Amino acid sequence: MFFIVGVFCLAAIANAQRCGNILHQHNGTVTSPNYPDAYGPNEDCVWTIPGRGGSVTVTFKDFELQEGTSGFLGLFGGSCDYDYVEVIIGDRSQGTYCGTSGPGTITANNDIQIRFVSDATTNAKGFKFQFKVDHGGNTPCGAHLDDNFGTVTSPNYPEDYPNNKFCTWTIARSQYPVTVMFTDFQLEDGSFFGGCSYDNVQIFDGTTSLGKFCGTDIPAALTTTNGVRITFKSDSSVGERGFSFEYRKDVPSTQAPIKPTKPTEKPAGSGDGSGDDSFLF
């Protein structure tokens, strides 16, 4: 009995880890696990589409999940309590969807995350969506960091960063912990009433926001296996020196970190970072 339970738990963990990705292409198509056949139980998948200063559009082409609860007399108040897709723009959920009522088309000048969750019973065909990132001829700001270690700086660092920038740096989830530590931090101060509503850095541990940071409020070091997303936003006025952070993956000694032999050359104003952008799907 213990063996059977153990195998079930391992299978559930494998399901949770085998789906989802950081999507680095400018466009592509994503399907739920096993599509068009039924998805499995206990899935928890997150696809992240970084905007990096561009406009992100996601369009669902097919959508069929387990129906949610119908609410009072089937007229209103229903919810997606079982299997669902959640759309997250930046750090704000735009709602959950189930049954055959999909999200349709979503467009945002921000990062978009698509999260899919299934329970232990009643599976359906799943979904298919297409995505596109349009930078309008501008250079994307940010990068996917796939080296074992490196240093990243804000655009123009240590000179003042430019106005109206939105940048995203991502580190994929891994079995090995990654540590991110800011070594310098100076952005425009927050508003008089509090909050970092002008220029800010926001840090995500997986899908969980650890907050927005501005002024000289340097973020605490983060160590996680959930994957990391760091965004930087500047408004239309007041630039400051910016920031620098280092990252390092705690790989085993048999796989000791190897410094890149060829540093990535970033276009002017894109922010520096070691490691080539990865376009793995």
From TrEMBL:
Region (Disordered): 246-281
UniProt xrefs under Gene3D superfamilies: Spermadhesin, CUB domain
Record's signal peptide: 1-16
SUPFAM superfamilies recorded: Spermadhesin, CUB domain
Keywords on record: Disulfide bond, Glycoprotein, Repeat, Signal
Pfam families (alphabetical): CUB (PF00431)
Residue span(s) of domain CUB: 19-134, 141-250
Record protein name field: CUB domain-containing protein
